[in-house]
Amino acid sequence: xxxxxxxxxxxxxxxxxxxxxxxxxxxxxxxxxxxxxxxxxxxxxxxxxxxxxxxxxxxxxxxxxxxxxxxxxxxxxxxxxxxxxxxxxxxxxxxxxxxxxxxxxxxxxxxxxxxxxxxxxxxxxxxxxxxxxxxxxxxxxxxxxxxxxxxxxxxxxxxxxxxxxxxxxxxxxxxxxxxxxxxxxxxxxxxxxxxxxxxxxxxxxxxxxxxxxxxxxxxxxxxxxxxxxxxxxxxxxxxxxxxxxxxxxxxxxxxxxxxxxxxxxxxxxxxxxxxxxxxxxxxxxxxxxxxxxxxxxxxxxxxxxxxxxxxxxxxxxxxxxxxxxxxxxxxxxxxxxxxxxxxxxxxxxxxxxxxxxxxxxxxxxxxxxxxxxxxxxxxxxxxxxxxxxxxxxxxxxxxxxxxxxxxxxxxxxxxxxxxxxxxxxxxxxx
Length: 430
Fold this sequence. Notes:
Blueprint: E1 4-16, H1 25-36, E2 56-68, E3 72-76, H2 83-90, E4 98-103, E5 107-110, H3 123-133, H4 138-152, H5 167-180, E6 185-189, H6 197-214, E7 217-221, H7 225-231, E8 234-239, E9 242-247, H8 249-261, E10 268-270, E11 285-292, E12 299-301, E13 306-314, E14 318-329, E15 334-339, E16 345-347, E17 350-358, E18 366-377, E19 383-398, E20 416-420, E21 422-425
Parallel strand pairs: 3-7, 3-8, 5-6, 6-7, 12-19, 15-20
Antiparallel strand pairs: 1-2, 1-4, 8-9, 10-11, 11-13, 13-17, 14-15, 14-16, 14-18, 17-21, 18-19
């Protein structure tokens, strides 16, 4: 196994759904007593159904592959395919139900934004903490410290507690630590999607250099096919816990994209609980419906805007809320975004219906997807994500002869601000 960095042999991971329903003992007791009284579980999210205790879910099913030293392996799959579960097993965050994982070398990983950071500690202290966890001495960390800070671009805030960092700053510092510490295997799980475009390119170049010059092994998960093409020399594709492809990145992308797209064009979309963002630490609000205003409104002539209705259910009144829409192309690369920040609104407890218009006038003809986000501000005035519907809604920009001369500069994609979204609350009076 001298030239093998990672070997995954017949690995399966099974979960027992509903075995633990609450995040705390108090939550567990509340759920238990509610069930005994025949009442609804108070800890369930809006629209969520309770699972039977004997219901089982196979997140990974007999996965086997090898990764050589210096290889850059991309891992593709739709949401829920088992990508993050696989990486957690490799990082030993959890153990496989069956099978074996053998590693030849130390691992650095970023499975979520801010992984391994303590919010109360400063950026400087967290760099030393992460290094110590990975087995480096204080002197070894100090020798790399200046390079870590310079690469991260957060030098001005290095002595600020990371709880005050934005998600982008967390990614920059976290990646910089992972890239500059001595490890043979580096694992990245979609975290670079939070950073700006210039920093993403910088990270891709750094990972490629680490693999080619230092012989480090890279495992990279992303929905951005451009970065997969730039970085990876091999890809595997997961589908419902099974490994269905292992080989050339272009062939893997061709296989993955139809799975990711499932290009259904409908006038009305109703969202189930499992289609909502699972990592949002709040169940106060649920975006339940998106509907195009006009019949066939998903076909938008080039140069026109998108008109729509949104339905949101809230458990309590809340002020200073706003919507954000992020556009993605057919390859899941972010094109740009629009939001309603200048027209923030109040949500009333119960059902809320909105009518809105967002700018799609500059989009070139083609197929696109929408990510819908419901945001607000916390007590300190920082932006807070309450709900997210990730790339389920599809629409198409159709060619318009009057706008035939419009040309996109692809260097803008991902950074383009499409202006303000207009939004009107139909049933609250605000």
